[in-house]
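Can't attach files on this board, so I'm pasting raw text. These are the components:
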Amino acid sequence: MEVNKVIKILEYIQTVGWFPSVVVILGWLYVAILVVVNLYYFFICVFKSIIR
Amino acid sequence: MIRISTHQLFCLIILFEIGSTTLFSMASDAKQDAWIVLAFTMVTGLIVLWIYTEIHRNFPQKNLIEIIIVLLGKTLGIPLAFCYAFYFILVSQFNFSEFGTLIKMTLLEETPQFIILSIFMLLTVYIFFLGFEVFGRTSEIVMPLMILMLVSTYVLIAISGHMDFRELSPVFVNLIPTNSKEGLELFHLVLNYTSFPYGETVVFLMYYCYVNEKRSIRRTAFLASSIMGVEFVILSIITISVLGVSYGASATVPFFELVKIVNVGDIITNLDAIAVIAIFIGGLYKMGIFLYGGILGLSTIFKIKDKKWLIIGACSFVLFFSLSKYTSYPYYRKSVIKVLDKNSAHYIYVLCIPPLLLIMHWLKKWNQKLTKVKRYGGQ
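---
Top answer:
Structure tokens for the assembled complex are below.
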């Protein structure tokens, strides 16, 4: 399963070229990072509100 | 310092949104209901536009790159800022290849691709050297001509008597999903045509800070997008009613096919050359706005004041990447669909990251408010 995924990603990079692949893959990575950061701030705010 | 008026912004948004929309049969997956999908995406597009203008309202003097760095800090922000600059350059490169190939397919069949693309790029470099204000001012001249061309084309097609509104029926058949797969496809279709062309206006976050009257930015952007939304619906209705559902979806450039049909009393005919030039101008603006957005992004990250070498570097990169990678139109379409439609760079940079940035700003404000209340509340 994991090997198939790697092959799919490599096929994608081969088809579209390195530049678009970098933009798309880094973009998805950043979406994940931003979701985590948002959740972090959200829980901090909720925590502060409860303490208050 | 770049300064543009709200009228120039309006003209730029109109030309930007016309851009490559004349090249495709939009929302053709919904068949004869494509125009309903486009009418609906106009609403979702305006919601997305509200998010962008709200981000700008919170940081009126900053462009997108500066906003990202302020919100995320240098460590997390600069790589994302790079991603945005690269995304703008990537989309501009797609548009560049698209319109270069269009000219080769329709007008200059014998001319080598390299010559067409080089001349196209030289023109772009020349405009960029003159500055973005010049780009804005020329849009004021070109926009009325483009609108006139589009409206007159629609009127001439109607006069030619090729329209058959029965092609539009039965209505709503393709918009009622019978299973979850169809529902998901419909959802993807709406997302696709929200991100393209409305969502692509994320690039204007690079320019909103240069507009003279900050207060009227939202109104201007909404007005321009609404006008274009109506235009997309009309174009879709005309394409389906003249070319039919299947040919409209499969034609390489449906608008070009439409214009070729125009024949008023055997006098007004063969307007395809004029149409291609008009389509090309739309493409030039769209490509230019994206590419200059990318250049502005890079110059903001590296704090470069004299952009000349950056312009030459970015333009050369776009030219040579297009020439080396996209040798044929079918291959180019395959790549674009993989990068922008399905996987997709548009979803990430247009629909996912800007709302997340706005929510993050709200949460930070909330956090600061709570901290202040805690600090001063106990005294």
